[in-house]
Design a protein that fits this description.
Helices cover about 50% and strands about 10% of the residues. Helix 3 packs antiparallel against helix 11.
C-alpha cells in the first residue's frame, strides 16, 4: 500500500478532505506503477529473448563414401546409419549429410560396369533417404580421381556454400533497415554466424578399405597423411577383420589414430558387391540383399553376367599403374 504524506488544508470540509486525499493517493500510486513498469521493461530488454534457440556446439560432419558400388547393396546404406549413430553418441558431432560418390570408369577395376549404371542404381537406392545423397562429380571425370581429391572437392563445396550464405545475409542487412529494438537480436545472430565452424567432411569406409591403405602403390603416403590429418576416417568393422591391429602395425595410422573412428557392427552383415555379382552370375536371387528398385534395374538392363565380370580383365588397376610409374 502506498503511503502518501497528509497535507490537507484545515479550511476544507470533511468530505472534500477525504476526496482530496483519495485523489492524491491514487495519482501517486499510478505514477509509481508506471515507474516500476518502465524499469521492468528496461531490464527485460537487456535479457536475451526467451525463444532464442540454444546453440549446438557439436561439430557438423558430412560423411563421404567413395567406391565402386558395383552394385550398391543394403550394407552400403547401413554403413551411413551406423556411422551417424556412433558420431551422435559421442556428443561431439552432428551428421548433417551423407554422400555416395561412385568411382569413375577410369579406375579400371575388373568387372566394373559403366558408371552410368552404377550411378543410376545408387540414386534408386537412396531415393527414400532424407539425408543420404548421390554425387556424380567423381564418376563423371574422364580420368580416375584419387580419394583425397574427392574429399578436397566436397570440402571446398561446403566452404563455397558457407561463404555464399554469409554474403547473402550481409546484403540483406544492408538493404533493409532494422528497428532499434531488434539490435540485440541482430548482434546475437551475427556473432553466432561468425563463430559457426564450417562442417567437416570425413571419409566413411569399411575395414577392407582401411586395410588397403597399407598395400604398396595402391595409396600414396602423402595422400593417406592428408586424409587422416585434414579429414579423418569413420571405419565400420566387418566380420573377421581386425582393424585395431592393423592400425597398430601401421606407423602412419598409429600416428593419426585419434583421427580414426572405429565403429563395431554388432548385427552381423557380410553382404558385399562381390557376392552379389557371384549370385547373379549363377542365377540366384539377390532380393532383400539390395533395394528392390536396384534389383529391378539390374533385371531390366541385364547387368552382371560372365561377360561383364571379364571387363577390364588383364588391365592393371589405375592406382597401381599410376603410382608404380611415380615410385
Amino acid at each position: 500500500m502506498c503511503h502518501v504524506p497528509l497535507r490537507i488544508s484545515e479550511s476544507l470540509p470533511g468530505a472534500l478532505k477525504i476526496a482530496s486525499l483519495t485523489y492524491t493517493s491514487h495519482k501517486e500510486e499510478q505514477s509509481l506503477r508506471l515507474h516500476l513498469s518502465s524499469s521492468e521493461a528496461v531490464q527485460q530488454s537487456l535479457l536475451p529473448p526467451q525463444n532464442m534457440e540454444k546453440s549446438d556446439d557439436r561439430r557438423e560432419v558430412v560423411l563421404l563414401a567413395t567406391g565402386s558400388f558395383n552394385p550398391i547393396t543394403v550394407m552400403h546404406l547401413r554403413l551411413f546409419e551406423l556411422a551417424r549413430d556412433y558420431l551422435h553418441e559421442t556428443g561431439k558431432y552432428k551428421v548433417i549429410k551423407g554422400i555416395i560418390s561412385p568411382v569413375g570408369d577410369g579406375y579400371k577395376k575388373k568387372g566394373l560396369i559403366e558408371a552410368s549404371h552404377r550411378l543410376a542404381m545408387a540414386n534408386l537406392a537412396t531415393k527414400n533417404s532424407n539425408w543420404i545423397e548421390v554425387d556424380s562429380w567423381e564418376c563423371s571425370q574422364k580420368e580416375w580421381m584419387e580419394t583425397v581429391l574427392v574429399l578436397r572437392h566436397h570440402q571446398q563445396k561446403l566452404a563455397n556454400a558457407n561463404t555464399s550464405d554469409s554474403s547473402e545475409k550481409v546484403v540483406h542487412k544492408k538493404g533493409h533497415k532494422r528497428k532499434r529494438e531488434n539490435s540485440y537480436q541482430d548482434k546475437t545472430d551475427r556473432c553466432l554466424q561468425e563463430s559457426k565452424v564450417m562442417p567437416q567432411v570425413k571419409l566413411l569406409c569399411g575395414a577392407d578399405m582401411l586395410e588397403s591403405l597399407g598395400k604398396p602403390n595402391l595409396w600414396k603416403n602423402e595422400d593417406v597423411i592428408e586424409i587422416l590429418s585434414s579429414f579423418g576416417i569413420v571405419c565400420i568393422t566387418r566380420l573377421g577383420s581386425n582393424a585395431s591391429n592393423f592400425i597398430y602395425e601401421s606407423d602412419i595410422l598409429w600416428k593419426y589414430k585419434h583421427m580414426i573412428h572405429l565403429v563395431e557392427e554388432w548385427i552381423t552383415n557380410d553382404i558385399s558387391s562381390t557376392k552379389i555379382r557371384r549370385a547373379l552370375r549363377r542365377g540366384m536371387s539377390i532380393r532383400y540383399l539390395v533395394p528392390d528398385s536396384v534389383v529391378e534395374y539390374i533385371e531390366n538392363h541385364e547387368l552382371y553376367n560372365e561377360r561383364s565380370e571379364e571387363r577390364n580383365s588383364g588391365i592393371i588397376l589405375e592406382p597401381l599403374a599410376r603410382n608404380s610409374k611415380n615410385s
